[in-house]
Design goal:
This protein has 411 residues and is of the alpha+beta class. The chain contains 13 helices and eight strands.
Length: 411
């Protein structure tokens, strides 16, 4: 059966719709909130909550096939073409919602995600995983969750850093923060569970916002948990502690928590593609205005260095996009996509870093100046190679899956 790369009518409508939002609502304020880090972009938040989240118009044929999760990635690419930091500041369930969807029960999904559909004011969701001593190695998490038999509550204690959307999720009523904690440190990965902590829960304290190189419009925070009590049903998945086996299905503990990345990594890859495309589009536009032609039909030996650079950048971007769509398509079909999600994330993170750096280089002093957004895109790009699993971690996951090695066999 031949493979088709044609998008459905629904995806084409979505692409045009979100590109218009990126162009008209985001680009005009992109520099403003890059400069004003930690300032709530109220005009963008209000627009998204009241208008943007309603989505694009429906296709002409309501029964026509859709591209499912691929359309979500198309939305991410288009909006991040506008501004990656503002994308991360949108009032949405975001990573917290992905975790609830991946590891939660139907009742939990309905309960925790309903406010995002029905709430009267902007609401955020976030994930609290990273600690000062636990970044890519989730098994090193020190935050604890102890069950109080007398009250029937979980008690969280620990300190989390680099929580994207953590300010809104922890302080605005209706928001949720999904916290990774261990119920049994001796069990390693098998003891890691995820817990939903509603905004303004006593014992959860916002310590401060990070000052960042890029995605400066995004609220990235540190959170402290001191005897933070939550009901027993705020645990996602089973409280049972058992040895973690990534090859076994049905494990809603650490495996359920890690399944969040199978959904989020294609989205982050799509974000990277959006930033890379913004930079490449601008570069090609500037080269054209200066009379520089990209001769795609010329033999490589006759092409200029600039032509070879641009064509290479386009190839990297297209490869990253196709890997992203493949991982997203598998996710939407309910197929295991751990390998494909990591491949897309690794490729896109590397591609966007190279593309944005090369764009700044080819534009010379003007590209390095703050008169253009190109330098901002270069700063925004690098985080896509780091969060949701670093380049090295994703390459390690790919190697393990391809070689069928366990984590103990290939470290």
């Amino acid at each position: 059966m031949p493979i088709s790369f044609d998008l459905s009518e629904s995806s084409r409508i979505s692409k045009d719709h979100y590109n218009k939002i990126a162009r008209e609502q985001m680009r005009p304020i992109s520099r403003k909130y890059d400069e004003a880090e930690h300032t709530l972009p109220t005009e963008w938040v209000d627009f998204w909550w009241n208008t943007g989240r309603k989505g694009p118009p429906p296709p002409s044929d309501p029964n026509a096939p859709s591209d499912g999760f691929v359309t979500v990635c198309i939305q991410a690419e288009e909006i991040c073409w506008g501004d990656c930091g503002l994308y991360l500041r949108m009032p949405t369930p975001a990573l917290g919602g992905s975790a609830v969807g991946a590891a939660g029960t139907p009742e939990q999904r309905k309960h925790f995600l309903a406010p995002f559909r029905e709430g009267g004011h902007p609401i955020w969701g976030a994930m609290a995983i990273t600690e000062s001593g636990a970044g890519s190695d989730a098994a090193a998490i020190e935050t604890t969750a102890d069950f109080d038999d007398d009250t029937g509550e979980w008690v969280l204690n620990g300190h989390k850093i680099f929580c994207t959307a953590g300010e809104g999720s922890s302080t605005v009523d209706g928001g949720i923060t999904v916290v990774w904690a261990t119920v049994d440190k001796s069990a390693g990965r098998g003891g890691i569970k995820s817990f939903v902590v509603p905004a303004n829960t006593p014992g959860m304290t916002l310590i401060g916002c990070e000052k960042k190189m890029g995605i400066r419009a995004s609220d990235t925070v540190s959170l402290r948990f001191e005897n933070c009590r939550i009901p027993s049903d705020h645990l996602l998945g089973s409280p049972e502690v058992k040895k973690y086996d990534p090859k076994k299905s049905g494990d809603k503990g650490f495996k359920g928590a890690m399944a969040t990345f199978d959904a989020s990594r294609p989205i982050v890859a799509a974000m990277a593609v959006g930033v890379g495309r913004a930079s490449l589009d601008f570069l090609k536009q500037e080269l054209e205005s200066q009379g520089v032609e990209i001769r795609y039909d010329a033999p490589p030996r006759e092409q200029t260095a600039i032509e070879r650079d641009v064509i290479g950048m386009e190839a990297d971007l297209q490869a990253a996009r196709l890997l992203t769509w493949r991982a997203a398509w598998m996710m939407g079909k309910g197929k295991p996509n751990n390998l494909e999600a990591s491949m897309a994330k690794a490729k896109a993170g590397l591609a966007v870093t190279r593309i944005t750096q090369k764009s700044v280089e080819l534009l010379g002093p003007l590209g390095y100046s703050r008169k253009l957004l190109v330098e901002k895109w270069m700063r925004d790009a690098k985080i896509n190679d780091i969060f949701e699993g670093t380049q090295q971690i994703n390459q390690l996951i790919v190697a393990r899956r391809v070689l069928d090695y366990s984590s103990s066999m290939l470290r």
